[in-house]
Design brief:
The chain is α/β, with parallel strands linked by helices. It is built from 15 helices and ten strands. It has a single domain, classed as TIM Barrel, CATH 3.20.20. The strands form three sheets. It has a four-stranded mixed sheet with strand order 8-1-9-10. Helix 1 runs parallel beside helix 3 and helix 6 packs across helix 9. The relative contact order is 0.16. It comes from Halalkalibacter nanhaiisediminis. Belongs to the radical SAM superfamily. MqnC family. It is an enzyme of class 1 (oxidoreductase). Its cofactor is [4Fe-4S] cluster.
C-alpha cells in the first residue's frame, strides 16, 4: 500500500488517525516518512538551528520495588548492592555540572519505598539554597511511589515538590502506554492512566513535563499507534509536554535478553511517524545515548530539532550495556555535520548561546562510569 496520501495529508496539516499510524508502521518506506517528518519539523522550526542542553543525569537511588523485566539498573529494597546517594555526593555532581556551563539536573531513581516525601522536599530545598540550577526530576512512577508512601494524592505531592524546588518533570516510564505490554514487562509499574494522570497534574500545579516512548518489547503496531494517540490526547487537554523523546529497548543484561533487538532503521521510522502524528508537541529530542552519535545525527533529518542533553552521567541505559559517551564539542561537530547551527538551550527551550562558525565549548567534561 502506498503511504504517499497519508504523508501528503500530514504535511498539509491534516491530523492523522491511528489507522494512518498503523499503515505507516507497516510500510518500509522509511526515507519517505523521514522527508515528510522533516518538512513538519521545519514548520515548527524554520531556522536551521539544532538545540542541545548541558545537563547531567543523577541517579540518586537504585533501590526499586517495581522490578521491570527490562531494567538492569534496579536493586531490590534491602540489597547490599543498593544505594541512596548522600546529599554531599549529589551536591558535588551538581557543582561539576555548573562548572562546565550546565543548566539542568535530571534526577531520577527507582521507586524506593523507604524514602518519605520529606527526603525529596528537604533535598530540593538544600539544592536550591546552594545552586541556581533547573531541577527536571522524578518521573511519574517515582511520584506515585512518593504519594503511596506519604498518603497524599499525586497532585498534592507535586505541589509540595514544586514548592521545595522542583521545576519540571521528565516523562520516563511511559515505555508503551497500553496495559497489554505493561502487564507483560512491568506489571507492578504505574498503569498508562496513572502515567498520564501524573503528567497532566504536573501542568495543573504550574510545571511542565516531557513525553517518552520506548519500542521493542514485542508490542504490536496497534499498541504503538495507541500510545501516540494517548500522548496526543493528553497534550490536547493540558499542553503538558514541551518535548517528545523515543528510543529502543536495550535488552542486554536484563530479563528480556532474548528479545530481538531493533535497529537504527526501526528507531528512525518511529521518530518520523511520531513527528507526523504528534502535531501538538513542538520539540523532538534525538536519542543518541541509546542509538549512538551517528544515528543521532541522522535523526535530525527525520523530525528531531534537538540533540537532547550532553548527559555527563547516565547509569540506567549503560547498565543494559549501551554506553555512548559524547562530550559537548562532539555534539557541536555532529550538529554541524548535519548542516545545522548548534545552539545551547535551557529546559524551557530558550536559546542561551548560538555557536556560529567553528566556536567550541571552552570547558568540557566526559564522565567515565
Amino acid at each position: 500500500m502506498s503511504i504517499d496520501a497519508i504523508l501528503e495529508r500530514a504535511v498539509n496539516g491534516e491530523r492523522l488517525s491511528m489507522n494512518d499510524a498503523i499503515a505507516l508502521y507497516e510500510s518500509d518506506e522509511v526515507e519517505k516518512m523521514g522527508e515528510a517528518a522533516n518538512k513538519i519539523m521545519k514548520k515548527w522550526h524554520p531556522e536551521p538551528i539544532t538545540t542541545f542542553i548541558i545537563g547531567r543525569n543523577v541517579n540518586y537511588t537504585n533501590f526499586c520495588d517495581t522490578y521491570c523485566r527490562f531494567c538492569a539498573f534496579y536493586r531490590a529494597p534491602g540489597s547490599k548492592e543498593g544505594y541512596v546517594l548522600s546529599n554531599e555526593e549529589i551536591f558535588k555532581k551538581i557543582e561539576e555540572t555548573i562548572a562546565v556551563g550546565g543548566t539542568e539536573i535530571l534526577m531520577q531513581g527507582g521507586t524506593n519505598p523507604d524514602l518519605p516525601l520529606s527526603y525529596y522536599t528537604d533535598l530540593l530545598r538544600e539544592i536550591k539554597k546552594r545552586y541556581n540550577i533547573w531541577m527536571h526530576s522524578f518521573s511519574p512512577a517515582e511520584i506515585w511511589k512518593i504519594a503511596e508512601v506519604s498518603g497524599l494524592s499525586v497532585e498534592e505531592v507535586l505541589r509540595e515538590l514544586k514548592e521545595a524546588g522542583l521545576d519540571s518533570m521528565p516523562g520516563g516510564g511511559a515505555e508503551i502506554l497500553t496495559e497489554e505490554t505493561r502487564l507483560r514487562v512491568s506489571r507492578l509499574k504505574v498503569t498508562w492512566e496513572q502515567w498520564i494522570e501524573a503528567m497532566e497534574a504536573t501542568k495543573k500545579v504550574g510545571m511542565h513535563g516531557t513525553a517518552t516512548m520506548v519500542i521493542g518489547f514485542g508490542e504490536s503496531f496497534e499498541e504503538r499507534a495507541l500510545h501516540l494517540q494517548r500522548v496526543r490526547d493528553a497534550q490536547d487537554r493540558t499542553q503538558c509536554f514541551t518535548a517528545y523523546i523515543s528510543w529502543l529497548l536495550q535488552p542486554e543484561n536484563t530479563g528480556m535478553y532474548k528479545t530481538k533487538k531493533l535497529g537504527p532503521r526501526d528507531y528512525l521510522k518511529n521518530v518520523a511517524i511520531s513527528r507526523l502524528f504528534l502535531d501538538n508537541i513542538p520539540n523532538f529530542q534525538s536519542s543518541w545515548v541509546t542509538m549512538g552519535p551517528e544515528v543521532g545525527k541522522l535523526s535530525l533529518e527525520y523530525g528531531c530539532n534537538d540533540f537532547g542533553s550532553t548527559m555527563m552521567e547516565e547509569n540506567v541505559v549503560s547498565s543494559a550495556g549501551t554506553t555512548h559517551k559524547v562530550n559537548t564539542n562532539e555534539i557541536l561537530r555532529l550538529i554541524r555535520e548535519a548542516g545545522k547551527i548548534p545552539a545551547q538551550r535551557n529546559t524551557k527551550y530558550e536559546i542561551l548561546r548560538t555557536f556560529d562558525g567553528e566556536e567550541v565549548i571552552e570547558k568540557d567534561f566526559i564522565m567515565q562510569n
